[in-house]
Amino acid sequence: MTTNRADPTSRFSNRVADYVRFRPSYPPALLALLREEAGVGPGTTVADVGAGTGIFSAMVLEIGSHVIGVEPNQRMREAAQEHIGPHSRYRSVAGAAEATGLAEASVDLITAAQAFHWFPVEETSREFRRILRPGGRVALLWNTRRVTENPFLEGYESILEEWGTDYTMVRRSYDVEDSLAHLFDGAEISHRNFPNEHLLGYEALEGRLLSSSYMPTREDPNGPAMLTALAALFGAHAIDDTVKMEYDTEVYYGLLD
Hints:
Layout: H1 16-22, H2 29-38, E1 45-49, H3 55-61, E2 66-70, H4 74-84, E3 90-93, E4 107-113, H5 121-131, E5 132-145, H6 151-163, H7 167-173, H8 177-184, E6 190-200, H9 202-210, H10 223-237, E7 243-255
Parallel strand pairs: 1-2, 1-4, 2-3, 4-5
Antiparallel strand pairs: 5-7, 6-7
Helix pairs in contact: 1-9, 5-8, 6-10
């Protein structure tokens, strides 16, 4: 997989407020999967790598684990701390996938939610093996937005294609088949798919769009025209003042030998 990593850790620095308020969460069924397939629960330690604003870290805390949010972007770490609040089983560290700063053999599970496609795979593979305890697992997950099921989703995709700054490059980076094979190095990879949806009023739809690092900001010269197109899309398809963003939450997980 080839991704422009000139400075991927700072891509979201000016998107944090919208990211916190308007990004979707993940289906509760994921927690059952972690309990049943990864043995995660009270007494276990999870490193949530690329934790961002803490959306998934907060969910993992619900199953009783200790969670370490590893995030290189200071503004996103601060947002996660504010989102989660004081919690005896949570701490955040300034680290990256290839250099977490965590001790050797110190975690039972590594998660990466909406993040693995940004990681340098060779270095990340070594680091994950270093910090996992024997028998430790990795779970990588994405909310994959549906793009063709109805006219609203098709129209939203068209806005991304027309106005996105590097949308095509980022979309290609989500093709992680080769990276997964390299990370797991021949070990069995399990895959699960959960339906997920997010109901959005116009403010939330606008914030969801602007939380994407590949879209112009409100202040960008193209921002007003882009938002005019978004408002027209919303007006054409909203029912009871909401539209529905549909996702497939995809999870890839397994042991690292």
